[in-house]
Design goal:
The structure holds 2 protein chains of 2 kinds.
Chain A: E1 2-12, E2 15-26, E3 30-34, H1 41-48, E4 56-61, E5 64-65, H2 71-77, E6 78-81, H3 93-104, H4 109-122, H5 138-152, E7 156-160, H6 168-185, E8 188-193, E9 204-209, E10 212-215
Parallel strand pairs in A: 3-8, 3-9, 6-7, 7-8
Antiparallel strand pairs in A: 1-2, 1-4, 4-5, 9-10
Helix pairs in contact in A: 3-4, 3-5, 4-5
Chain B: H1 2-33, H2 40-57, H3 62-83, H4 90-132, H5 135-141, H6 146-184, H7 191-201, H8 204-230, H9 237-266
Chain lengths: ~220, ~270
């Protein structure tokens, strides 16, 4: 698996957020994208995930542009984990994860439930599976987003400031789970981080500078 | 004052035209999404959502429909019996009265207004809330078409729910009106006789008009709710405004459909 972002240019109407973004990641690689407030990193990650269209450039996963893929294949390639919300308020936590899996037919219902329960136990959120999104705090909402992405087992996972508001124990546990699943499923991972977040697990560190991404050498 | 009224009238006409276009657009969108019903994975999901909608919209409304129709049936027929001229074959007279007043007009009207009040409002606020919280984007991020989650279940659930409500209304009203006849008139007219008399007067045209009112009326109520819910912007007050506009148009359009179909079929 190879993620190749080539000359990506992205923005909204007259507001150009990023240009000449180039990035390569192999299977099992982790990159921390150090971000500041209002630099548009969340929108960039959504563009890489195919939620927003790019103005120019390509996001290639194994040589195929994800913006040209149908929804099922796009989600099987790249998954984005929201920093805020990202869940459907009319579904419980369990159905927020199960529903897209059943919708796309990624696996049978028994296997889907098994994945969800296993991950929920590991992330210590098994007790909130019957909750509705309005009952969750920000940290729980982010963990549910992560759980959903890991259940899909995509080739690339994009995590948007997932460590924010978490205790050290929670962060350590989350990073352990991500590392274990990454070793098992060999997905690449881009995590947007801010000041104070852990980055020791990353193979590469990058930061936003002058509307592009600079990877630290 | 006059200028303001003219401006307001113009705005209503413009909004009505937009609503008609949105209705056809949503209907076309619903038909284009129909193939998923036959898709193994997406079809399973559709049926779960459709059954949930149908239970909440149609089946859970039955107790309320039965209470309203029983009260109406008892007092309307009871009143009619007390104040109408005495006729020799009153069972026949009141079966005509039941069909013309209750089955053709009052029943569909009451059921439609209850559907708007209970479920039209619920769908408008649900779609509005989803829009306000950017959940359509969340659906897109997991590759789910929002039409399959919000449009298609309503597309089918509302018309069939309204039909079920009609049937419940007529059944309950029939029972209550029979009791009214027994109380105010002759207890020798049995339920079976009264029921068979009404059945004998129902022809294909009656049933067709009734089904058209249910299916078209239900569809219009559901799609109007989705249209106004989807117009919600970034302010919470947009939801309140959407509810007001949706219910106003739903009531007017549903009334027009009923009158138009009755005029076409019965005059």
């Amino acid at each position: 698996m190879r993620l190749n972002i080539c000359n990506l240019k992205f923005g909204f109407e007259d507001n150009l957020l990023f240009e000449d973004v180039d990035l390569q990641l192999e299977a099992g690689d982790s990159l921390c994208l150090h971000t500041a407030v209002l630099d548009g990193a969340s929108s960039l990650l959504k563009c890489i995930a195919g939620v927003f269209p790019a103005q120019s450039g390509e996001v290639l996963v194994d040589g195929i542009d994800i913006h040209s893929l149908p929804p099922k294949k796009r989600v099987a390639s790249v998954c984005y984990c929201y920093e805020h919300k990202g869940l459907i308020s009319t579904f419980t936590v369990l159905n927020n994860v199960l529903f897209p899996i059943r919708y796309h037919g990624f696996c049978g219902e028994k296997e889907a439930k098994r994945r969800v329960l296993e991950l929920a136990e590991r992330l210590d959120i098994a007790h909130i599976l019957d909750y509705e999104p309005y009952q969750l705090n920000d940290v729980q909402t982010r963990l549910v987003n992560v759980m959903r992405a890991l259940c899909f087992t995509p080739k690339v996972i994009l995590l948007d400031e997932v460590q924010a508001g978490m205790s050290e124990d929670l962060i350590d546990n989350l990073l352990d789970v991500l590392k274990d699943y990454q070793q098992q499923f060999r997905f690449a991972m881009i995590m947007a981080t801010t000041a104070g977040d852990e980055t020791y697990f990353a193979d590469k560190i990058a930061h936003v500078e002058n509307k592009t991404i600079k990877v630290a050498t | 004052m006059i200028a303001h009224s003219v401006t307001r009238f113009g705005a209503i006409v413009r909004e009505s035209v937009v609503l008609v276009c949105a209705f056809f657009s949503l209907t076309a969108s619903g038909y284009r999404s129909l193939p998923i019903v036959f898709n193994t994975n997406k079809g399973q999901v559709f049926w779960v959502l459709f059954i949930r909608n149908f239970k909440q919209v149609g089946l859970q409304a039955i107790p309320f429909i039965c209470i309203i129709s029983a009260v109406l049936g008892f007092f309307v027929i009871g009143r009619a019996f007390l104040f109408s001229p005495i006729v020799s074959n009153y069972a026949d007279y009141y079966s005509d009265f039941f069909i013309i007043v209750v089955m053709r007009e009052v029943g569909p009207l009451v059921c439609g207004i209850l559907l708007i009040a209970r479920s039209g409002v619920a769908i408008t606020s649900e779609i509005g809330y989803v829009k306000l919280n950017n959940e359509f984007e969340a659906l897109a991020s997991v590759g789910v078409d929002p039409r399959h989650v919000f449009l298609l279940p309503v597309f089918f659930a509302f018309p069939f729910s309204l039909l079920v409500m009609f049937i419940s209304f007529f059944t309950s009203c029939l029972l209550a009106s029979n009791i009214a006849i027994a109380v105010f008139g002759d207890a020798n007219v049995t339920m079976a006789d009264y029921f068979l008399l009404i059945l004998s007067k129902l022809n294909v045209l009656e049933l067709t008009i009734m089904c058209c009112k249910a299916l078209l009326g239900g569809l219009v109520i559901g799609l109007t709710a989705i249209h106004f819910g989807s117009l919600v912007g970034t302010r919470f007050t947009d939801i309140t405004r959407a509810l007001q506009r949706a219910t106003s148009y739903q009531v007017v359009v549903y009334l027009v459909i009923n009158v138009a179909l009755s005029s076409l079929g019965y005059f």
